[in-house]
Each structure stands twice: as structure tokens, then as C-alpha cells.
Design goal:
The protein is built from four helices and 16 strands. With 246 residues, it is α+β, with helices and mostly antiparallel strands. An eight-stranded mixed sheet has the order 2-3-4-1-5-8-7-6, covered by helices on one side. Strands 10-11-12-9-13-16-15-14 form an eight-stranded mixed sheet. The longest helix is centred in the middle third of the chain and has 14 residues.
């Protein structure tokens, strides 16, 4: 069952929600939608130029947050049934949408497609267009198999390093998925990644906005946003998502 649009959700503690959405709106040069939810805990980052949104921010009531995916589909009930048949678990069913967990326990949402079709533009040489699932070794292969079966029409292939597996959506969808096998057994988590034409320049801009350096990797830099969440700047072409020389 095909996915019509993808969203990356940045999840941060409710007490730091304002810091989070202020930072991510600045990074993506987006406006803010009206706040939604019983406690005003949801907001969409609205890009300019007539593009459709693909990033949202949520203030969570418990835990440190992280990130999750929303899949927008024509048939929510049918997609949920397919996911459950492949080993997902149902967390909550709402009016027209649902929260599920992958076999490893990573949450994701299934929501109705609202006609989104225009990808947001590259902003200052970077684009938030990937959610990375950080998985313990015992869960990695099963998650690769789960997403490979669930995501009809997506390209599923090993990544640039043995611990990575990439799920690339069909042309036009704005958010892809990276599965990362951790070096230890611990609870799974997720974070967002930005593709950057120039990591050094993007890092400098993010630090001006309040981010802090955490670590460097083979072709990425880890930062911490003002709300305490980690994310990565990756040396990928913001237009194509392909890995480029750093």
C-alpha cells in the first residue's frame, strides 16, 4: 500500500517545546502553523514558496523525546492492517489516524493524506529530509525486513557503512529512512538528519542559533539542539540525498 507523503517529527520534552520549535523553525526558515492538541503540543513548520510541510515538532509529556515518522496514506485502516500483519504493534487508535510501533518498539504514525505534493526547498545549503532509527544489534535485521516489506515502492539497500541500511522513497516524497545498527544492546531511539552541501558552514549557522557540538563521524557531525535533542549534519547532496565527498 503506497505512501503519499512523509513527515519527520521532532519530539522534545514539553517544558522545552518553545526552544525546540523556535530553533527548528529558524534552521529550516519556516513559519509556524497554529498550535494543535489538547495542550497545544503540536506545531507544523510551514515552508515558504508554496511548498508543503514535511517537518513537525511535538512537546512530549514524558522522556527526552527524539524523532518519529508519520506516513500519510489514502487508506489509514488498510495501511495499519498491513503493518500489524508484518509485526507492528498498535499503540493507540484515534479518529482517522493511528500510532503504532515497529517490531523493535520504535513509534510511528499513520495519518490521512491531505494532498501534499511539493517538497520544501533547500535552505542555505541544507535540507532536513531523513529520520534515522538507532537500533540494537538484536533488532536490526528484523527492522530492515519489516520496512522492506511495508514500504511499497521504496528502494531498500545497504548504506555507506556496514552498520547502515537506507530506505529511499519514490521520487517526490520528502523524507527518507536510515536504519543504524548500534554497537551495543540498548533501547531503540530515533533522530533527524540534515543533508548538507557544506557541513562546516551549516554547523556554524546552527551554533549561532544555539546548537552545541557533540561529535564528528565518518561523514557526519552530531549536534545538540537548544532543547537537548541530538541530530546529525550529513555530507549528502541536499537535492538528491546522495553521499558526497566531505
Amino acid at each position: 500500500m503506497s505512501i503519499r507523503w512523509t513527515y519527520a517529527f521532532v519530539d522534545r520534552p514539553a517544558a522545552l517545546f518553545e526552544r525546540a520549535h523556535t530553533f527548528w523553525a529558524a534552521v529550516t526558515e519556516s513559519g509556524l502553523s497554529e498550535f494543535r492538541g489538547e495542550r497545544g503540543e503540536f506545531v507544523t513548520l510551514v515552508p515558504g514558496g508554496g511548498a508543503d510541510a514535511c517537518v513537525k515538532v511535538q512537546g512530549v509529556g514524558a522522556g527526552a523525546g527524539g524523532a518519529h515518522l508519520d506516513f500519510a496514506v489514502d487508506d489509514v485502516r488498510g495501511f495499519v492492517a498491513d503493518a500489524l500483519g508484518l509485526g507492528a504493534g498498535l499503540v493507540a487508535e484515534h479518529d482517522g489516524w493511528a500510532v503504532l510501533r515497529t517490531p523493535a518498539g520504535v513509534p510511528f504514525c499513520v495519518v490521512p493524506w491531505a494532498g501534499e505534493s511539493v517538497r520544501p526547498p533547500v535552505v542555505r545549503g541544507s535540507l532536513l529530509g531523513q529520520v534515522c532509527l538507532d537500533l540494537p544489534p538484536s533488532a536490526f535485521d528484523a527492522e530492515v525486513a519489516f520496512f522492506g516489506a511495508l514500504l511499497d515502492g521504496w528502494a531498500s539497500a545497504p548504506g555507506s557503512l556496514p552498520e547502515f541500511h537506507v530506505l529511499r522513497p519514490p521520487a517526490g516524497l520528502p523524507v527518507r529512512i536510515l536504519l543504524q545498527r548500534l554497537g551495543e544492546e540498548r533501547a531503540p531511539s530515533a533522530h533527524v538528519d540534515l543533508a548538507c552541501a557544506d557541513i562546516t558552514a551549516t554547523r556554524a549557522r546552527h551554533e549561532e542559533l544555539g546548537a552545541a557540538f557533540v561529535a564528528d563521524g565518518a561523514h557526519w557531525t552530531v549536534l545538540r539542539d537548544p532543547a537537548g535533542g541530538v541530530y546529525c549534519l550529513t555530507a549528502r547532496d541536499p537535492g538528491t540525498g546522495a553521499l558526497s565527498a566531505r
